[in-house]
Every structure is written in C-alpha cells, then in structure tokens.
Write a structure and sequence with these properties.
This protein has 13 helices and twelve strands. With 369 residues, the chain is an alpha/beta fold. Helix 2 runs parallel beside helix 4, helix 5 runs parallel beside helix 6 and helix 10 runs antiparallel to helix 11. The relative contact order is 0.14.
Length: 369
C-alpha cells in the first residue's frame, strides 16, 4: 500500500503492463483503501481498486475454481468436481444509469447515431406517484472478449462450457450474448472442443442453476455480470470456504493469465499477528495462485520440470489436509466451531512447515528437482 501511494499508484499500472508483456502474473491480496485505511497509512488519496485497474488494462474474464479435499464437507455433497464460474465483469447493472421517477410522465430511451436521425424507444408511461427506471448497456467487443476467454478456459481444463442468460425475456439484450457466443464457437472453437470430447451449450439461467445443483461439477459456467456476482459466491459457499478457492484472470488471447487467491487480505488475522497472538491462517488459495501461474509459465515455456514441481506442490497441499493436518478454518468445517479444540489444527507456521516437509519428500523421487 505504501509503495502504491509513493508512486501515485503507477506501480499497479506497471504491474499490469508487465503481466501483459510476459503473459503471466501472480497477484497477492491487495487493499482497496477506505477512510480508515487512508488514515492508517497516511495516504495521499483513496486509491482505486487495484483489481479494477489491472483488469481494465488486461481485459479478460475472472474464473473461480474450488480446491477440493475429500475430508472437507461440502454444503452440496454431490459436487465432487469443481464448478468454475466465469463472470463477465463489464457493463450491465454495474455501469447502469438508474433514477427515481418522481411522478407521472414518460420515460424514453434515445439512440443518436453518429450520422443519422435519433431513434426513440418508449420504456414506460408512468402514472400516480411514479416509480424507478434504469438504462444499461454492453458492447460487442466486451462480449466477444468474454466469449474467447471462456472458450479458452474450456480448452485449458478440457471441460464443457455453458453460457447462461435469460434470452427468452431479454430477447435483444441477452440474445446478443447468445448469438455472439454461438458465432465464435462455430467459427473458431467447435473443432477444438470436439477433438477434446467436450462441448459448448447455452442454457437459460434458471435451468442452469437447477442443473448445477444436480450435477457433480466438472464444467465451466460463463455468467453475465450480475449472475456471476451472485453465483460465484453461492458456488463458493457450496464448496465450503473461500480459503479453498482459486481466482484466475484469462485474457482473450489465451496466452495471458493473472492468478490470485479468491479471498482478501485477512485483516483480522493480521491484526492478531501484529499483537503477537497466534494465528491459524489458511495459505492454500495463495499457494495455488502461485502454482496456477507457474503451470501456465510451464506451458508457455514447455518447461517439464516446472510443471512437475507445480503439480507436486498442489498435490501435497491436498494430501496434507486429507491426512488430517490443517488450519483452524478447515477444522471448523469438519467439526463445527463449538467442537474444535487446539489439538485439531496447526497454526500458520506449523502448517507451512508441514507442507514444506511433505513437499521435500514428494520431490525426492524427482532427482532433477
């Protein structure tokens, strides 16, 4: 935070440009300052979200994926494989113009082309005390980028891809998403998908929600902005913990990836650490942020040793937890808060030491590493 302030947040822009240049970035949890943080760090101003800055430069779509351990209970027991949510974080309600209609009158939308006569659309004739109104948009370019990122993710995981909309109601708006995805799939991805034995399909959002609940997981779910906002948290809770969730930004070129943990800065634990108190902080999502970035680097560079190391580290994380060594949050998932004792979990450093010990054992069978 201090360096972002000292550089007037230029360091965030330079970081995004470096990710674009080298095609891989690994991002730690960052602070989006509020009034209290401005005072705490004596900041020049309330800097914007670094995630927003980075995504505006790189484009792409954020995909969340659960890290599954057999002994960690899931609220949806049938989800034995991850469901990867891709949220189109552009436009729609999040860039909308909304207002209160104070009384009787007509609300219209007007499209004024750069050359030509304006076209008006009647939204509603209000009576009585009025009501509310909203106008929102998206762009073909953004939808196309969303489609490419989603199709690339499907190829990367070799899992089927589903796009959910409500095109039966929003025939033009959601229909545009459906049509663009289908066009790009037919022209550029169908052959690649069929070669991998996977598929793309459009579904109505209500049908997709029901299908997801009944499924065992193992697919990519491309969501419009609001749907993705809701479903990403819903699915994360279904798997048990944000501490066991990866977040990967896939750019439309299919070559550029930024990986991070899905959770934030874990401020409460940091305050305990500052006071010299023991913490039991789950590092798994942060470790997987590194391994997913390194795995992409291994693919780009055709680096077999880096791939072996990254896959071994991921396997060690899961195997260690399944062997009963874990942080407090996971122990609570298994036994419940009221039933957890200090003997049920390791503190932050004990858990990291256990992971390191198990990684050394696993890598000992690979002499080059």
């Amino acid at each position: 935070m201090e360096n972002r302030d000292a550089t007037n947040d230029r360091v965030t822009v330079e970081a995004a440009e470096a990710v674009r240049r080298y095609n891989v970035g690994i991002k730690c949890a960052t602070i989006t300052p509020d009034e209290k943080r401005v005072e705490e760090f004596k900041l020049k101003q309330m800097w914007r979200s670094p995630n927003g800055t980075i995504r505006n430069i790189l484009g792409g779509t954020v995909f969340r994926e659960a890290i599954i351990c057999r002994n960690i209970p899931r609220l949806v027991p049938g989800w034995v494989k991850p469901i990867i949510i891709g949220r189109h974080a552009h436009g729609d309600q999040y860039k909308a113009t909304d207002f209160v209609v104070p009384g009787p009158g007509r609300v219209e939308m007007t499209y004024t082309p750069s050359s030509g006569e304006p076209v008006k659309y009647l939204v509603h004739e209000f009576e009585g005390t009025g009501g509310v109104s909203l106008g929102m948009y998206n762009t073909d370019k953004s939808i196309r980028d969303f489609a490419h990122s989603s199709f690339q993710m499907g190829l990367s995981k070799a899992w089927p891809l589903y796009l959910s909309t409500k095109n039966t109601i929003l025939k033009k708006y959601d229909g545009r998403f459906k049509d663009i995805f289908q066009e790009i799939y037919e022209k550029e991805y169908r052959a690649q998908y069929e070669a991998k034995g996977i598929w793309y399909e459009h579904r109505l959002i209500d049908d997709m929600v029901a299908q997801a609940m009944k499924s065992e997981g193992g697919f990519i779910w491309a969501c419009k902005n609001y749907d993705g906002d809701v479903q990403s948290d819903s699915v994360a809770q279904g798997y048990g913990s944000l501490g066991m969730m990866t977040s990967v930004l896939i750019c439309p070129d299919g070559r550029t990836v930024e990986s991070e943990a899905a959770h934030g800065t874990v401020t409460r634990h940091y305050r305990q650490h500052q006071k010299g108190q023991e913490t039991s902080t789950n590092p798994i999502a942060s470790i997987f942020a590194w391994t997913r970035g390194l795995l992409h680097r291994a693919t780009l560079d055709n680096n077999a040793e880096l791939r072996v190391f990254s896959e071994a580290l991921e396997a060690v994380c899961i195997e260690t937890i399944e062997a009963g060594f874990m942080t407090k949050d996971l122990a609570i998932c298994i036994k419940g808060l009221a039933n957890v004792t200090r003997a049920d979990y390791l503190n932050t450093f004990e858990f990291l030491d256990k992971l390191a010990e198990n990684l050394r054992i696993k890598l000992s069978s690979h002499p080059k590493l």
